[in-house]
Amino acid sequence: MSEHDNQARAQFAEKTWDGLEPMIEDYAAAACAIAAEDFHQTLDYGPPSVERLEAILNRLSPAPDPLPAGESDWLSLLWGSYFGELLRHLHGGDWTMTIYPQTEFSVPTLQWESGSRVYPMMKVHRRLSLGASESLPAFYRMFCERLGAGPASRR
Asked: Which CATH number does the domain housing residue 17 bear?
């Protein structure tokens, strides 16, 4: 754990937000800063950032040893927020809280008017827990194919 990572954790432990979107935007911005500071990677919400994020997660995945629960939760929220914001920047969508399929708990979800949903924090959690078989670049390619859209920015 780096000093920059520790500072972000402490800052977010004390912070409150007026809604889900501002919270996720703050976590995503922290992910960008930590990526630059600790991993020398530039995360800029563009499609090439998916590969850069994957490289960061490769370094964080302690396979075959599982991450401690608190560490896994923090990393899933931090990097999942960035991944979700990348998707939202490129493909639109709105943040909402929904029940994760086949569970009883609510998670941040990116949702489109078509009814399509993505659970970025859960995807990152699976990537950290299960390793490279849960590849974010492969998921992103499948996402783009299913959405029927290229990575055209809406901003």
From this structure: 1.20.120.1090
For 34-145, strand residue ranges (E) read 94-99, 106-111, 117-118
Question: What residues make up the domain containing 117?
Answer: 3-147
Domain count, the chain: 1
- pLDDT tens-digit readout, 29-69: 999 999 999 999 999 999 999 999 999 999 987 656 667 76
Strands lying side by side in the sheet with 94-99: 94-99, 106-111, 117-118
Residue type, 117: R
| Rounded-to-integer distance, Cα 144 and Cα 140, Å | 6
* pTM greater than 0.85: yes
Residues facing 95 on adjacent strands: 110
